[in-house]
TrEMBL record:
Keywords: DNA damage, DNA repair, Endonuclease, Hydrolase, Metal-binding, Nuclease, Zinc. Its cofactor is Zn(2+). InterPro entries: AP_endonuc_2, AP_endonuc_F2_Zn_BS, Xyl_isomerase-like_sf, Xyl_isomerase-like_TIM-brl. Endonuclease IV plays a role in DNA repair. It cleaves phosphodiester bonds at apurinic or apyrimidinic (AP) sites, generating a 3'-hydroxyl group and a 5'-terminal sugar phosphate. SMART domains: AP2Ec (SM00518). CDD domains: AP2Ec (cd00019). It comes from Candidatus Woesebacteria bacterium GW2011_GWB1_39_10b. Zn(2+) 2 binds at residues 146, 180, 217, 262. This is Probable endonuclease 4.
Length: 295
């Protein structure tokens, strides 16, 4: 079968451009990075020099796509206006950086609302519409909504909820989606059998449209279907398992999209590379490294 575009969330410790050194060790065609400290509200300024360095190293690497994952703190669907505004600022600051480095997307979660999902969806829609408005003209990087594990009052775990958010977005061409296998599975979406996988894709297509499905996060799950416990596991080690992923990756609408691993890491690339090797093996994809031009 044809090859897949796969990679990892990699570290930018020592500078954004350092991502490509780790990407090479882990044989990535796509990478995901943070562009600011994920646990802080403050977004450090990235200099033009850093942007140039990043793009030079990207040019030399075999990485075809780069996505930025938002910091953990923003909560666009909060019931508190102050927190929504703080979140909007953080998302806006990171959107700018994602655009400046030439990223293919900026991925974020919709967060949670303690008054329930209906209010949460409204709040998320309003924050995201504002985010698009503020960045449309000068920083139009694709804004990618990630599916959530759905614990407590978290928004955006089911395809129906993602569709409700989608419905409210004013500038739809600006937005897309990233489905996370661990999150979907623990939120109660079966995805290990050919039948359930076709149903999931058909539902997404019907309620949102497959052309808006841009990325997958490929993670095994430490806890079972519907547990709502978001703990990623290494591929084949968790409840989704090798056969589950084999089935999942055999779907042509899934395997043609970039697949990003956020699996637990030891820090030793020789060990950590096991996940992408197994992913490619389960996808039946023989990996031929691409030329530095990314062709
Ligand atoms: Zn995420
Ligand atoms: Zn994820």
């Amino acid at each position: 079968m044809n090859k897949i575009i796969a990679g990892y969330h990699v570290s930018v410790s020592g500078g954004l451009h350092r991502a490509f050194a780790e990407a090479a060790l882990l044989d990535c065609d796509v990478i995901q990075i943070f562009v600011s400290s994920p646990q802080m509200w403050h977004t450090a300024v990235i200099s033009d020099k850093e942007v140039t360095l990043f793009q030079e190293d990207w040019e030399k690497s075999s990485v075809q796509q780069v996505v930025v994952h938002a910091a953990y703190l923003p909560n666009p669907s909060s019931h508190k206006a102050t927190l929504r505004n703080l979140s909007l600022k953080k998302l806006k600051d990171e959107t700018k950086i994602a655009y400046r480095i030439g990223a293919n997307g900026y991925i974020f979660h919709c967060g949670s609302n303690q008054n329930g999902n209906e209010e949460g969806i409204k709040a998320a829609v309003s924050t995201l519409n504002r985010l698009a408005e503020l960045t449309d003209e000068n920083w139009p990087v694709p804004l990618i909504i990630e599916s959530d594990a759905g614990a407590g009052n978290r928004i955006g775990d089911t395809i129906e909820e993602l569709a409700a958010i989608w419905k409210g977005l004013d500038n739809k061409p600006r937005f897309g989606f990233c489905l996370d296998t661990c999150h979907m599975f623990v939120s109660g979406i079966e995805l290990r059998t050919p039948n359930s996988i076709s149903q999931l894709i058909a539902k997404f297509d019907k309620l949102i449209g497959l052309e808006h499905l841009k990325f997958f996060h490929i993670n095994d799950a430490m806890f079972d279907l519907g547990s709502k416990k978001d703990r990623h596991d290494n591929i084949g080690q968790g409840f989704i398992g090798e056969q589950g992923f084999k089935n999942f990756l055999s779907n042509p609408d899934i395997r043609k999209r970039p697949l990003i691993l956020e699996t637990p890491r030891t820090g030793d690339p020789k060990i950590d590379i096991k996940d992408i090797r197994l992913l490619r093996k389960l996808a039946g994809a023989n990996h031929i490294p691409t030329s530095p031009s990314g062709s």
